[in-house]
């Protein structure tokens, strides 16, 4: 029996594939490679010494997806496929709603046709909207500030409704905070196309000399050093959370939402200092105006994941930066 990972060549998907392979699971990947590379598959296979069955296809393509299910013994699905850039979602909302919802609906219909009842969904802390009450736990109200976030919100509801209607379904909605870093081997990592949207890959390119400086948006927040504070989680801790969630779906039915974060927030300037130590390079930065919609703090209460999944994040900021820098150096 195999675990299917949609969007499995992407940043979260490929690290999750490694965790599953190392746990003895067979892995099938479906990815259209629109925002990923086949090189990540090769890296994962080199790390684990195991093969991944790969299909190049759009998850919203029903005929292609049904062929994957028909030709492989799929036991569970980890659903990572989807567009994920907040700014682009604001500029092209219809594109985001069409892609992210269509892939999910096609996947659920195909799962039903082939009798697959276990799913883990790649959700996001963006579903909490702009709450200023911290830490965030799963009982808090949800709501979003951009189309990307709303797609995650809507997909969570789709899975909840499906599980309410079909009592055999077991679904875990994993609300990620800020995945960073890379596999410690340096063979796989985050590889955004163009200018990165997220903080750590941007800092990494500044350290590598590919970008001149980091723009820090806001230096007057009511935080320890005036810069925004976020919950960063090592990508391999996140991958371990997926492995635990897949295991949970084997023994439970229904639908649960769970935070995957550390509960230990870091400021932008703490990130800059830690990356400078890891790389041995100065990270030039300039503090600019706040961005509309940004909040001072955002971090998780991860206690539900500890209780339900027996999971917690083990790696700290220095390891996140070290592994990211190893990945960046290995690409040169």
How would you describe the overall organization of this protein?
The strands form 4 sheets. The chain has a 7-stranded parallel β-sheet, sandwiched between helices. A 3-stranded mixed β-sheet has the order 12-9-14. It is 42% helix and 19% strand. The protein is of the alpha/beta class. It is built from 11 helices and 14 strands. The protein starts with a strand and ends with a helix. Helix 1 (11-22) packs across helix 8 and helix 7 crosses helix 11 (317-331).
Brief descriptors of the model:
alpha/beta; seven-stranded parallel sheet; 42% helix; Rossmann fold; single chain; 332 residues
Topology:
Elements: E1 2-6, H1 11-22, E2 26-31, H2 38-48, E3 53-56, H3 62-71, E4 74-79, H4 86-91, H5 93-113, E5 118-124, H6 147-165, E6 170-176, E7 178-180, H7 199-207, E8 214-217, E9 229-230, E10 232-234, H8 235-251, E11 254-260, E12 266-267, H9 268-279, E13 285-288, E14 297-298, H10 303-309, H11 317-331
Parallel strand pairs: 1-2, 1-4, 2-3, 4-5, 5-6, 6-11, 7-10, 8-13, 9-14
Antiparallel strand pairs: 9-12
Shape: globular
For the record, the CATH class of the domain at 2-180 and 232-262 and 299-314 is Alpha Beta
CATH superfamily of the domain at 2-180 and 232-262 and 299-314: NAD(P)-binding Rossmann-like Domain
Distance between the termini: 38 Å
Largest sheet: 7 strands, parallel
CATH topology of the domain at 2-180 and 232-262 and 299-314: Rossmann fold
């Amino acid at each position: 029996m195999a675990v299917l990972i949609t969007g499995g060549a992407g940043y979260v998907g490929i690290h999750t594939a490694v965790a599953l392979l190392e746990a003895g699971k067979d892995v099938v990947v479906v990815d259209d490679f629109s925002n990923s590379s086949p090189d990540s598959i090769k890296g994962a296979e080199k790390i684990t010494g195991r093969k991944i069955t790969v299909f190049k296809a759009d998850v919203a393509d029903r005929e292609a997806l049904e062929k994957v299910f028909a030709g492989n013994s799929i036991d569970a699905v980890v659903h990572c496929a989807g567009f994920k850039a907040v700014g682009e979602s604001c500029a092209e909302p219809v594109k985001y709603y069409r892609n992210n919802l269509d892939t999910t609906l096609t996947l659920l219909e195909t799962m039903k046709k082939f009798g697959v009842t276990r799913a883990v969904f790649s959700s996001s802390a963006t579903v909490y909207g702009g709450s200023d009450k911290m830490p965030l736990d799963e009982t808090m109200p949800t709501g979003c500030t951009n189309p990307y976030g709303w797609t995650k919100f809507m997909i969570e509801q789709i899975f909840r409704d499906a599980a309410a209607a079909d009592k055999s379904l077991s679904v875990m909605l994993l609300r990620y905070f800020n995945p960073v870093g890379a596999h410690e081997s340096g063979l796989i990592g985050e590889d955004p196309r163009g200018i990165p949207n997220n903080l750590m890959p941007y800092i990494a390119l500044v350290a590598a000399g590919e970008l001149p400086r980091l723009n820090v948006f806001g230096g007057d927040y009511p935080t320890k050093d005036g810069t925004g504070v976020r919950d960063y989680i090592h990508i391999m801790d996140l991958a371990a959370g997926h492995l635990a969630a897949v295991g949970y779906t084997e023994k439970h039915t229904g639908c649960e939402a769970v935070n995957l974060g550390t509960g230990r927030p870091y400021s932008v300037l703490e990130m800059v200092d830690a990356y400078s130590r890891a790389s041995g390079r100065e990270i030039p930065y300039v503090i600019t105006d706040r961005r509309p919609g940004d909040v001072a703090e955002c971090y998780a209460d991860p206690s539900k994941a500890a209780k339900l999944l027996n999971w917690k994040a083990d790696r700290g900021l220095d390891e996140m930066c070290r592994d990211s820098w190893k990945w960046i150096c290995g690409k040169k």
